[in-house]
From TrEMBL:
Species of provenance: Streptomyces cavernicola
Record-annotated Aminoglycoside phosphotransferase domain positions: 51-252
Protein name: Phosphotransferase
Residue stretches spanning the membrane: none
Pfam families xrefs: APH
Organism superkingdom: Bacteria
Amino acid sequence: MSSSVARALTATVRAAAHGPHAECTCPARPTVLADRDDGTVVRDGATVAKAHAPDTDRTELAARLAVAAHPALAGVLLAPLDLPAAELDGRQVTFWPHGTPVDADAPQEAPWEEAAALLARLHATPVEALPGSLPAMRGPHKAALAVARMRRTGPPEQVAAVVERAWSALPPWARAESTAPGPARLCHGDLHLGQLVRHPAPHGPWLLIDVDDLGLGDPAWDLARPAAWFAAGLLAPEEWLRFIGSYAAAAGPAVPLDADPWPVLDVPARALTVQTAALAVAKATAARRELDEVELALLDACDRMASVPPQLPAEAAK
């Protein structure tokens, strides 16, 4: 195990899956799926336990879990297991059914169409049908955290300056300094291919997972990471077209159905580019290594973005 949290969470998920005194007969040993500051995830058989970040707001997490379990989101979000809440060293622990993730070794099989269709259904869910009072979607907050992390690592001044220029050119709402304009819709908040699983495993339908950033906000944010990758040359045009075409076909409300989507996607895509570049710079600085080819492409995208006003379509910045 890579940390004391992962070791303790293994015992927690085993007790949840089999009872506190039953012997585990699963064919495979518990597996640590993730172990980061913002969450530790361990699987034991068909049960997955997640220890959320220490600063997770309990009320907000409860609201997000209620949405994931709500019938209106059946077939869109993976629902949590109906198991008693747990706590581990002050961190909230939730339990989930295991699903089969996207195969990172088969990028040609990435479920871009399925991801887009799920987002369209998520965004179209009537807010008034949801239980309780939902918090804001945390996408812009995570972008701000990424920039703060970069600053703490003390990267080379000329590298940091490129990211900072692109960051400062964004409107306040994209930097988590104000509320996003326009009507708020239900958003995932951190969409990438690692947020999809097949359930029931291994061949069930695709579902969205990870509700830590779920909330109300601008639905264009959920389309922004693939848009940013496409603009930076990291996502093939045909994959981008598959993604945005599937979203439009499912009547997703984030972009106009009969007009260029880039004016709507421009600011969120810029923000996600800055977020990804800031994290890349922070990790490279901490490891005392040079930026790799992909990371340099992100830095170059930030440099080009800074020369074009954000209100222009992103197409003009490419």
